[in-house]
Design brief:
By secondary structure, this protein is of the alpha+beta class. Strands 2-3-4-7-6-5-8-9 form an eight-stranded antiparallel β-barrel. Strand 2 and strand 3 form a beta hairpin.
């Protein structure tokens, strides 16, 4: 995804956040096999659009091949408009995280009605986040929106979710290790932003170098497993 960003970021804040989150994640089992992990999510909606901001670390370049490589920070802003936009519409965004502001363009997801950008940074659960959206060919009823952290109210945080997934697939993981089979782990926050905004689930996936893929989907509140395949 191309980015057109003007970034004004505090180096000291980024350094603090990287230290805080990487320190927590390193205590999780199978850390070296993690290719994608979502720490948390903010969301909000108004009369013009709904928005989510999800943040964590993931493999770069991103390739689901069963081999976990170097990871980088990411922060994905996703917008779904209440009205369909024309293909020629340019969507501008500005996101403010505490005292730091990032501006640029959102790009249309070819597989959904989402307009998205990766601003390449994480934040804390208690960050103050607001966004402003504008369109090249029309006025929005509301341009600005304050986002609220959602995951801090869940009974299952990302560390507990990682533990649940590792425990559920313990036999499979042990077998991969026994046979020196490479694998990678993905822990994502799943939602249907277009049709069921504000409802979230944890999804834990394992992909091996043999092409095998296994998933579980479970509650963010109590860890109840809803889907396993």
């Amino acid at each position: 995804m191309k980015k057109y960003l003007i970034v004004f970021l505090s180096a000291s804040i980024i350094t603090l956040m990287v230290f805080m989150f990487s320190g927590c994640a390193n205590n999780s089992s199978n850390q070296e096999f993690i290719s994608d992990i979502r720490y948390g999510i903010f969301d909000g909606q108004n009369e013009s659009y709904c928005a989510t901001f999800t943040y964590g670390i993931r493999e770069n370049p991103y390739k689901a091949d069963g081999i976990s490589k170097n990871t980088v920070e990411f922060g994905i802003l996703s917008i779904v408009f209440n009205k369909t936009l024309s293909d020629e519409t340019i969507v501008n965004f500005s996101i403010k995280i505490n005292d730091d502001t990032i501006t640029g363009l959102l790009e249309k997801n070819p597989y959904s009605n989402e307009y998205m950008v990766d601003i390449g940074t994480i934040c804390s659960d208690n960050a103050n986040i607001s966004i402003e959206i504008s369109l090249s060919d029309q006025e929005l009823t509301n341009k600005t929106l304050q986002l609220k952290n959602i995951n801090s109210t869940w009974g299952i945080n990302y560390l507990k979710a990682l533990e649940i997934g590792n425990n559920e697939f313990k036999k499979l993981i042990d077998n991969y290790k026994k046979n020196n089979t490479s694998y990678e782990i993905f822990l994502k926050i799943s939602t249907q932003q277009e049709t069921n905004f504000g409802v979230y689930f944890w999804t834990f996936s394992i992909i091996s170098e043999l092409g095998e893929k296994h998933n579980i989907v479970f509650s963010v509140n109590n860890g109840e497993i809803l889907v396993k395949n």
